Amino acid sequence: MALEQADVQRAAHLARLGLNDGDAARYVDDLNRILAMVDQLQRVDTDDIAPLSHPLDATQRLRADEVTESDRRTQFQRCAPAVENGLYLVPRVVE
Amino acid sequence: MHDKTLSELAAGLASGEFTSHELTQHLLSRIDCLDGELNSFITVTPDTALKAAERADAARAAGQAGALTGLPLALKDIFCTQGVKTSAGSRMLDDFVSPYDATVVEKLADAGTVSLGKTNMDEFAMGSSNENSHYGPVKNPWDLTAVSGGSSGGSAAAVAAGLVPAAMGTDTGGSIRQPAAFCGITGLKPTYGRVSRYGMIAYASSLDQAGPLARTAEDCALLLNAIAGHDLRDSTSVARGVPDYTAELDAPLAGLKIGLPKEYFGEGLDPTVAATVHEAIEVFETLGASVREVSLPHTHYAIPAYYVIAPAEASSNLSRFDGVRFGHRCDDPKDLIDLYERTRAEGFGEEVKRRILIGTHTLSEGFFDAYYKKAQQVRRLIRQDFLDAFEQVDVLMGPASPTPAFDLGAKSDPVSMYLQDIYTIAVNLAGIPGISVPAGFVDGRPVGLQVLGTHFAEERLLNVAHRFQQATDWHLRRPAFAEENA
Amino acid sequence: MQWETVIGLEVHVQLATQSKIFSGASTAFGAEPNTQACAVDLGLPGVLPVLNEAAVAMAVQFGLAIHAEIPEVSVFDRKNYFYPDLPKGYQTSQMYHPIVGPGVVEISLDDGSTKRVRVHHAHLEEDAGKSLHEDFHGMTGVDLNRAGTPLLEIVSEPDMRSAKEAAAYLKAIHSIVTYLGISDGNMAEGSMRCDVNVSVRPQGQEAFGTRAEIKNVNSFRFVERAIAFEVERQIELLEDGGEVVQETRLFDPERDETRSMRTKEEANDYRYFPCPDLLPVVLDGAYVDHLREILPELPDEKRARFQNELGLSAYDANVLSATRDMADYFEAVKDVCGDAKQAANWVQGELSGALNREGIAIQDSPVSAPQLGELIARVIDDTINGKAAKQVFQALWHGEGENADAVIEAKGLKQVTDTAAIDAMIDQVIADSPAQVAQYRDAEPEKRGKMIGYFVGQVMKASRGTANPQQVNQLLKEKLDALC
């Protein structure tokens, strides 16, 4: 399943990574070599093998429903690129 | 002072031979004069370090010193540190001052340690040579033309060069063990979930694990005592008691069953590295251990499986870097899509982009089953290989890396770089612990012996490594760089 | 051609937890922007989620209430997309293994019949923040207080065939979640939101038509209006030889129309995969059994009991079980007065009238349920008559008196049942009304019944409303007839 430049552009768009055509051409080559290596997986017989998402067979612990956090907006917004009136600013979102 | 291990320094502090303040001052001045060349730190924090040292000295004077009080160390720049820049080696976070502390950072501070600063790393922990850092590569103290290994290259190099007696790293596919091997020090990757990941900037969440890099196994045990344990803020941390990891260090090795995975000694392994590792294994035989060959039949598929799973998780984990709430933001975005695309294009480096693209592609519609699901199935087979092997033997041994540290700039092709991690990567997929210990040199560059155990076998690994270090002196060798420029 | 409408609903219910689904930040509504967005909600580098037990319990209770299968294992997945109100660049949701499996919701239709609407599944997920589009120098402001609020998304099968059925289904869901106390169900504040999938097909055709998804349908009324508009639009389109496009449309309540949303994400590819920061949620049988045991009586059960055990009409049972507050109030009144029918009449009559007039919710009623129950009890035991009862009610409504007895005492409304006293009053009225008595005497016997009203009125007036009207009627008839 060799990738073409359009596939790379599609992935870049989904990932919101701006790529110019030169970048994309370079990544086509890299990604195809990586995928060729990854394609070795197809040689493994995995019928009836359950996927493994976590290395330990642990289950989710539940947290008690308690409010433990207080307002730290000032500290949190100190590292924000653009804020006003406590809001994070982004270019106008068109609905 | 900079030549000593953590436990020797602890003894020196306890006996009053020197104070934490003196020790900290000494190491800060070494960083000052040596790190320009080495580039192992991204941020040095002399003021907070000296204050912490004073507090430690005061605590000791008040009779309130613990095992680690006043001991200096460094933190890989992937651990969030409140009030201190936390960059993850990325331009994306070049101006990010974390508003909170990682659990590991909090625990080490509570134990009275003194952080000297944040160490260099491959961007977002993606790399095996530390050449993927926005802050430039880290040099290997044993040979300044060689790489330090990665991604915890700064931590490994700083310890090897005697800038700090120990440092914290993280290991997603070998990022503690491989740089420890390249730099001739000891590095432990604990069992997945043994140490909290809270506050550790995520690369691949189901693989990431924090651990210590130090001169000796004993020092690693001391640090693991401080950082291990269940954390209510990390769902994947394990609720399981934490033993005293120093308690079994001296246990005899008679009767120890060592397995040598035949797949770890085959094609691709540098013969001189193979010879060095075999010599190390002979040492264990003299200590009463028995050795047999075992098989981990799916080893070959570990790298392919890893390069599906890790980039997939990473592509999602790195979506939060969008220029809205923290981190880099491009100038004058013309609209929302421009804000995202330019911010991320500017903020992320090549290798990170490559992995985001791979991960995005393999998760996307029509490819998920062939890649992601398949990789997760193979992951189960890889884990099963280890579990089967540990039915027969107590520990597995082999090289940490197929070659010693390679030259800076030697590996420009991403796939050949990925193949470097052939002996370390399966361990993360299986979630088991592993330790790398210095086992000799090839052409002046260190070689690491890797010891693996089953889940939660850290005590046994540290015991095996410690007995080896009592029988050998590879861990006591110091690079000329550390001495010449003192 | 005859067209059939096919409707499926996705209802998002904000769960009434104190803290968020994956963090310890408060979920309270209306705080200053971003003051309730903690490090986890903001998706700061390095933070991790931990699941809220109450959110799990509430989801399971909903599942039990709709007789759904509760799978032993459920899993959280990441839905990946970029949007400013989605801090992590993914929403933690449940795609493949939801917490609640298939179930059934029974809805009541206007003709008194009921219909079963199948629920495909319900899953837990985190809410997003809010984008504020007021002018910040041409920028949008983002408030992440709501980010991480637990949502239960309830996905129905396409089982509804009219806008009315869809509205009835939404009401049934509202009633279940408020009965369970797992949501305040406040649609105006966005605690309950609804996306509607609508398609039409020629009557008798089995295959579904192409559907449109209508978003932003956030009141019972809007559901009906949005569907009505959309159905008309689709039929018109098809009859003109056009085709319905599968798309997302936005309902505009101002213009009463749906319109196509400019597709911001041409290629929707959410790249779902299991969230590696969360582990599988495993619910053991004992936990589910415990939740089943503490499950409150649900609307269906209550309605049936009101009819079968209390003897109420289907209509009354329906109205009185519509909300848990209504049902609880009614039952408290009934318990005090001991008469379900009288309680039903008063709650739906005098009380509801007064509440509606002043726009007060029943749980905030100035007349408490015990007060109303005692008042009714005084009617039943003949202490007061119906007219006086209304006076007492008004007095209690305005806070004049602690209870019915105090008002009756203070206003002297106690019904006079003493025959001698009534006799005296009747004699006086007859003596004072010679002309009316003469007319009565001269009238045909069958017309006298109506004429007696005048005398009853006079006697009641003389008693200041406290005489027992039946008694007055009876005695008057005897005395007047004796005069004829």
Explained architecture:
- The complex is a heterotrimer of chains A (95), B (486) and C (484).
- In chain A, 35% of the residues lie in helices and 9% in strands.
- Chain A is of the alpha+beta class and 95 residues long.
- Chain A has a domain at 5-43: Histone, subunit A (Orthogonal Bundle), CATH 1.10.20.
- The relative contact order of chain A is 0.08.
- Chain B is of the alpha/beta class and 486 residues long.
- Chain B has a single domain, classed as Amidase signature (AS) enzymes, CATH 3.90.1300.10.
- Helix content of chain B is 40%, strand content 14%.
- The radius of gyration of chain B is 21 Å and the shape is globular.
- The termini of chain C are far apart.
- At the A-B interface, helix 1, helix 2 and strand 3 of A face helix 9, helix 10, helix 11, helix 12 and helix 13 of B.
Instruction: Describe the largest sheet of chain B.
Output: 11 strands, mixed
- The CATH C-level name of chain B is Alpha Beta
Give the overall shape of chain B, derived from the CA principal axes.
Answer: globular
- The coarse overall form of chain C would be elongated
The fraction of residues assigned to DSSP E strands of chain C is 15-25%
**What profile does the largest beta sheet of chain C have?**
8 strands, mixed
Q: How many domains is the backbone of chain C divided into?
A: 3
Specify the CATH architecture of chain B: Alpha-Beta Complex
Structure described in brief:
The complex is a heterotrimer of chains A (95), B (486) and C (484). Chain B has helices at 6-15, 20-38, 46-61, 103-110, 153-160, 177-183, 217-227, 271-286, 302-317, 336-347, 350-363, 368-392, 414-418, 425-430, 458-471, 480-484, and strands spanning 41-44, 72-76, 114-119, 139-140, 143-147, 166-171, 186-189, 209-214, 257-261, 290-294, 395-399, 434-442, 445-452.
